[in-house]
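Progress against Task 2.4 (sequence-to-structure conversion) is shown through the following example record, which the project officer requested during the mid-term review.
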Amino acid sequence: MTVNPIDRNTGTIQSAIALASAKTGVDFNYLLGQAQVESGMRADARAGTSSASGLYQFIEQSWLAVIKKHGAEHGLGWAADSIGEGANGRMTVSDPATRRAILALRNDPSTASLMAAEHAADNKASIEGSLGRTATGTDLYMAHFLGLGGARNFLKNMEANPGKIGAALFPAAARANHNIFYGAGGQPRTLSEIYDRFSAKLDRGAASVGAVGLASRSLTPTEASDGMEVIPGNGESQTGATRWAQATITQLKGTTDRAASLLRPTPDTARLAYLMLARLGG
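Structure tokens generated for the chain above:
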């Protein structure tokens, strides 16, 4: 059977996201949906209006910051050690070639997925600490869009006054993203309307790759795994889960269509299916 190169690349990206989810405990469906929304699952995607690049469209400063904080945990100590932070909080790399190499990692699906997961975990902890509730997928996507401080400000204001005009609170973001903050005829949108639009956008992206009801769902951590040990489903033993995964991997190697069908697993076997994809490695 001939495999379409696009299908092969998508499988590799899904595998990288699955492995990042397994290593960090960040919700697989959220990471998958975010990648679809941000880049259309393209590792080489580039923004035309900013420095954003890669699967998760990290801008340069955000990427350097997350590599500085989490790179050493994932074998990128050389990169983390090369990044300095100025008094103004700006991240710098003194050697131009090293800086280019670090920024190029945004286009590597494995590194991008791991850093997106770590970034989401950091944002989740901060948002939950500020709001006193479990973060949803949309909350995390707001942090990706507005930055953590902006997201906390947005969510706190929306909780107190959902009818507040978004552009009044975020004039700079509104100028750069007119279609988000304003509707037809230039009508300014409220915070709740903006939030709902982000929810719908995230859910559409997630649904297109098999993850449903993501935006409004509270994202509880999944069990993380540094190796490729299988994480059981509800009520399933470690031994039984491992046998299922091994049998499924054997059946699906080289069978693209059947592997793709496991992107829509039952809740009890979801974690196993995602880890299986990581084992296959595209």
